[in-house]
User: Which sequence fits this backbone?
């Protein structure tokens, strides 16, 4: 399916495990409850897609564009989202343990109530992102832009903020034990 265009198609409960979707045009497509673990989706266009409760563990989404995607309860543990465009995505209640968001654009992203333990956000743009009520234990924010981001009520134990931009960032009631600044 590499490079295929499936605009607005519906793949609910479909199995795409380890499928190659490099450069695919998946704009507006629905993948609710889909199994997409290990899929290679680098450089894919997924603007406005629906990924509710999809399992995408260890998927490669490097340089993919998921702007305006609705993906509540998605599982992206160990996924590679390096340099992905994730503007205004809704990842609330998702699971992203060991995910790599380095260099990604998460402007206006909703990552509230998620598990982002050990996630790598180095060099990422998290301007206006909502990371409230989130497990960010051992997360790496080195060099990230967290201007106007909300990390209230989050567990930031052992997080690394070296060189991060923290202008107007909210840390209300956050656990910040052993953080590095």
Assistant:
């Amino acid at each position: 399916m590499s490079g295929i265009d499936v605009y607005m198609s519906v793949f609910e409960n479909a199995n795409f495990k380890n499928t190659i979707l490099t450069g695919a045009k998946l704009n507006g497509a629905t993948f609710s409850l889909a199994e997409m673990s290990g899929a290679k989706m680098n450089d894919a266009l997924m603007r406005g897609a629906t990924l509710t409760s999809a399992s995408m563990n260890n998927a490669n989404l490097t340089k993919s564009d998921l702007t305006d995607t609705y993906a509540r309860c998605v599982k992206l543990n160990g996924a590679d989202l390096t340099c992905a465009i994730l503007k205004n995505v809704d990842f609330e209640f998702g699971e992203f343990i060991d995910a790599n968001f380095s260099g990604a654009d998460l402007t206006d992203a909703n990552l509230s109530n998620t598990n982002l333990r050990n996630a790598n956000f180095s060099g990422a743009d998290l301007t206006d992102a909502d990371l409230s009520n989130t497990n960010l234990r051992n997360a790496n924010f080195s060099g990230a832009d967290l201007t106007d981001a909300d990390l209230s009520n989050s567990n930031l134990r052992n997080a690394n903020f070296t060189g991060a931009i923290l202008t107007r960032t909210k840390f209300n009631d956050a656990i910040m034990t052993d953080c590095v600044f």
Remarks:
- The radius of gyration is 15 Å.
- The domain at 1-73+85-91 is CATH 2.160.20.80 (Pectate Lyase C-like).
